[in-house]
Amino acid sequence: MINEDYNLESKAQHSNPFKIFGYGSLIWKPPPHFVDRQIGFIKGFVRRFAQSSHDHRGTIEKPGRVVTLVPTEEWTSLTDSDLFVSNVVWGVVYTINPIYEKEVKEYLDEREKDGYEMIEVSVYNQTDGNESLLTKASVYVGHTDNPSFAGVTPLDELSELIYKSVGPSGPNKDYLYNLNTEVHKLWEGVKDPYLERLTELVSSLDS
To answer: Any idea of its EC number (predicted)?
Structure first.
């Protein structure tokens, strides 16, 4: 619920509220107690289904996959066969009501506990084709040295894994479908060719 218990006095007392950049399920399943939602993008990363999911879209015995951010330069050092490498990832910045900052951080730490760590990034937007800095925000990433990082997987193999995997949060394929749909809604003309191709492959198995 936007603007709950959040007034001018609160803003004055908290000039640097906690902001979180969502690039996966946070886009359509926002954190609690956010007071503002802004569309933007970060630079220098790719969004990839390279993080094993043992607690949401898969199980310990049969892990699913969810997205993580990998620095573009690091990703290209791992593979030369990715046809969809870009340097921009679109998502959503949520500003959290300072009254609930500790509660929300604990909630997010639990939600993103499977191999993710928090870093700070610059978030940008576009106005009339001109790029400008929107804000700084925190973001959860699964570094390549974390135990749940699954690395590079050929898309045909990855699509089968996503199609078959199911976890406590539901089918892995639904996570992919939702993510692709919501990214399209973020900004006019925004597309993620990687997500689009993976959605096509999983949909072909799902027909």
So the answer is: 4.3.2.7
* Domain 8-206 sits in CATH 3.10.490.10: yes
pLDDT at 10: 52
CA distance 113 to 96: 20
Annotation says 200 is catalytic: no
Contact 88, 69 (CB under 8 A): no
Distance, in Å, from the CA atom of 148 to the CA atom of 51, rounded to the nearest integer, reads: 6
pTM attached to this predicted model: 0.90
Catalytic residue among 9, 112, 196, 200: 112
Q: Which long-range contacts (CB under 8 A, 24 or more apart) does 99-102 make?
A: 99/5, 99/6, 99/10, 99/33, 100/32, 100/33, 101/17, 101/18
